[in-house]
Amino acid sequence: MTRLGLVVPSSNTTAEPEFRGALPPDATIHAARMPLEDVTADELDAMADGAERAAALLSHASVHGVAYACTTGSLLHGSGFDSRLESRLSEAAGAPAVATALSVVRALHALDVERVAVATPYAADLDELEREYLADNGFEVVALDGRGLVENVAIGALTPDEAERQGRSVLADAPDADALFVSCTNYRSMPALASLERDFGVPVVSSNAATVWDLCHRVGVEPNLDVRLADVTPANGD
């Protein structure tokens, strides 16, 4: 049995069920939580202080790998912060670790994406941080739409149908996009990815899809993803 650990914001209600649905029967998911109510830069920054303690607690369950399942929380301080976060969590958990923002970068690179359209639930300041992060990692953001939400419980209440409508709107405005990225581990969007891929003919990646894909490959498990991301692997774990 493979045990996977999730370090998640306390108000996240989406990551655990979406991960569970993407795992094979012989893998289990176990979560430790960090305090967060509103998705703001200040709260995300404060939340990160509890990441290592959460990972250390997951080590008590002898997890085989750990994910820091928060997109903006792992890109808040730009490139470099993401990899340092992975190293800190890996040391604390005694197991391989991934952070969502860097998992997304790995997924987009594995899919040979250059121009990406982005759909988020966030307020404008976090959207701009995400745009800068993606640009710093070599992607041209050709369209970005945010819902302007701050309360994480409100983000978690969004439905996959709402994610699909937002994704369709963004892709309609970005016919030159190589892919769509639906951001936020608390945005219920995995059920919408396959239909968006089918109708628009480009890869569609969500925060949770990228993170579960990355973590599973780190520990030698095949995730159940009904999108083309399932057919590629990270390059040497980078």
UniProtKB/TrEMBL annotation:
Pfam families: Amdase. InterPro entries: Iso_Racemase_Enz_sf, MaiA/AMDase. This is Aspartate/glutamate racemase family protein.
